[in-house]
């Protein structure tokens, strides 16, 4: 059984740098993270597409499926739930999600690491 540990919050950018319904990649402690701002909130997931191994999810198509905020991989179009990281098209496939918040106008991310 794995446990999840979290480390410190990292300031990434001002909230104004994140366009609505567009992704952006950030390198945090050597980890590529895809950040998204939607009408529902802020989301941070691993930037690596688990199907292809390419670091492209930040360039994916942001949308929703049955009210769930999603991003579709720009390569093979698998759709991931931005809240959980689960792939909605391939059972058992997922991307790591990270904690994200806006504090004093700055976007902060705290990496989640499985041990």
Automatic annotation (TrEMBL):
In this entry, which stretches build a coiled coil? Answer: none
Enumerate the UniProt keywords alphabetically: 2Fe-2S, Iron, Iron-sulfur, Metal-binding, Nitrate assimilation, Oxidoreductase
**Domain (Rieske): residue spans on this chain:** 10-109
Q: Where are the transmembrane segments?
A: none
Enumerate the Pfam families for this protein.
Rieske_2
InterPro entries recorded: NirD (IPR017881), Rieske-like_NirD (IPR012748), Rieske_2Fe-2S (IPR017941), Rieske_2Fe-2S_sf (IPR036922)
Q: Provide the protein name.
A: Nitrite reductase small subunit NirD
Organismal lineage:
Bacteria, Bacillati, Actinomycetota, Actinomycetes, Micromonosporales
